[in-house]
Amino acid sequence: MGESIAAVIQRKRKNKNRLAQQSMGWLTLAAVMLVPTIIAALFVRAWPILCSKPLGELLFSTTWHPMKNSFGFYAFIMGTLWVTGLAMIISVPPSVLTAIYLAEYSSTRTRSLVKTFIDILAGIPSVIFGVWGVLTIVPFIRNYFAPAVDRWLGGIPLFQNNNPTGYGLLAGGFVLAVMVFPIIISLAEEVISAVPQGLRDASLTLGATRWQTIRRVVMRRAWLGVIASIMLGFSRAFGETMAIMMVAGNVPQIPYSIFDPVYPLTALIANNYGEMMSIPLYDSALLTGALILLIIILVFNLLSRLAIVRLVQRD
Amino acid sequence: MNKITPKIEEVIYKVLMLASTAVVLSILFLILATVIWRGLPALNLAMLTQTPKGGYYLGQEGGILNAIVGSLYLAGGATMLAIVLSLPIALYLQVYIPHTRQAEWVRLAMDVLWGVPSIVYGAFGFIILIWLGMRASLLGGIIALAFLELPIMVRGMDEAIAMVPPALKETSYALGANKYETALKVILRQTAPGLLTAVLLAFGRGIGDAASVLFTAGYTDRLPNSLFRPAASLPLAVFFQLNTPYPAVQERAYASALILTFIILVLSLITRQLTTRLTTHIIR
Question: Is the overall model pTM greater than 0.90, yes or no?
Answer without folding.
Answer: yes
